[in-house]
Amino acid sequence: MNQDYSIIEDIGIKDIVFSIIMILSVVVITNRWLSRFGESDYVIIAASIILVGALAALILSIEFHLRRIEKLVESGDHTLASSIQDVEDSMDQKLSAAMQNTNNKITELSKRLYR
């Protein structure tokens, strides 16, 4: 149940309301348009409802997938930043060790030269 709410939250209630408005407006427009030519045909109205409903579902599905991709990219950015920080820390440790080793060698050479 919680996952269903998450899907509705991801899509957005505003988008669902707009989809319902699209479907209701196609009913009114199709009925008015067909009534100009005489009796309106309910099969055409039903087909119009299905067509606009499928269009609304397609738009909502695309938006849902884009939001999911955006979340994946954001999580990848966080993972990449964490990995970069780990590499930076590792390189810092290796560089510090190399600098310490170099300083020790220089100190040893200096002692040998002054003897």
Describe this structure as you would to a colleague:
This protein is an all-alpha fold and 115 residues long. The protein is rod-shaped, with a radius of gyration of 33 Å. 92% of the residues lie in helices and 0% in strands. Helix 2 (13-35) packs antiparallel against helix 3. It has helices at 2-11, 13-35, 42-114. It has one domain.
Q: What is the overall silhouette?
A: rod-shaped
Secondary-structure element string: HHH
C-alpha Rg (nearest Å): 33 Å
The number of domains: 1
How many alpha or pi helices? 3
Number of strands: 0
Percentage of β-strand residues: under 5%
Mean pLDDT comes to 82
Defining key terms:
115 residues; mainly alpha; 3 helices; 92% helix
Quick summary:
By secondary structure, the protein is mainly alpha-helical. Helix content is 92%, strand content 0%.
List the helices and strands and how they pair.
Elements (H helix, E strand, L loop, with lengths): L1 H10 L1 H23 L6 H73 L1
